[in-house]
């Protein structure tokens, strides 16, 4: 994968508002979010605490709550917001073109 390559993750309409989907590419897994304000974001897919996939979590505004231990992250920045998580998520650029979501891992 080239450093400036955008990867098609899914159709924009596959993600409901305040929801998240899983996207696996090569040997990596991502979480793609759509906020209540209709903005799209992408982070690493696994919680930094329990290694549980965030696509099973609950999106509330800009917050994703991990389904395993209820830790929370801000999806816009990756910042850990509630214990037991204390390590931030890595975030990735997102763009929407022709109704499709692209990320730059």
Produce a short descriptive summary.
The chain has 105 residues and is mainly β.
What does this structure look like?
- This is Rieske 2Fe-2S domain-containing protein.
- Residues 7-103 form the Rieske domain.
- With 105 residues, the chain is mostly beta strands.
- Helices cover 0% and strands 44% of the residues.
- It has strands spanning 7-11, 19-25, 28-34, 40-44, 58-60, 63-65, 72-74, 80-82, 91-92, 94-97, 100-103.
- Strands 2-3-4-9 form a 4-stranded antiparallel sheet, with no helix packed on it. A 4-stranded antiparallel sheet has the order 5-6-7-8, with no helix packed on it.
- A hairpin with a 2-residue loop joins strand 10 (94-97) and strand 11.
- The N and C termini lie close together (9 Å).
Major sheet: 4 strands, antiparallel
Residue runs with pLDDT of under 50 for 5 or more positions: none
Rg from C-alpha positions? Answer: 13 Å
Please tell me the overall pLDDT. Answer: 95
GO molecular function, one term: oxidoreductase activity, acting on paired donors, with incorporation or reduction of molecular oxygen
Pfam families: Rieske
Family: Belongs to the bacterial ring-hydroxylating dioxygenase ferredoxin component family.
Keywords: 2Fe-2S, Iron, Iron-sulfur, Metal-binding
């Amino acid at each position: 994968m080239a450093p400036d390559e955008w990867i098609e993750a899914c159709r924009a309409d596959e993600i409901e508002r305040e929801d998240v989907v899983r996207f696996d590419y090569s040997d990596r897994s991502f979480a793609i979010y759509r906020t209540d304000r209709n903005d799209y974001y992408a982070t690493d897919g696994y919680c930094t605490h329990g290694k549980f996939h965030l696509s099973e979590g609950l999106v509330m505004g800009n917050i994703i709550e991990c389904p395993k231990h209820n830790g929370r992250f801000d999806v816009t920045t990756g910042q850990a917001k509630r214990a037991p998580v204390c390590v931030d998520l890595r975030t990735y650029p997102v763009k929407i073109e022709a109704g499709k979501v692209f990320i730059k891992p």
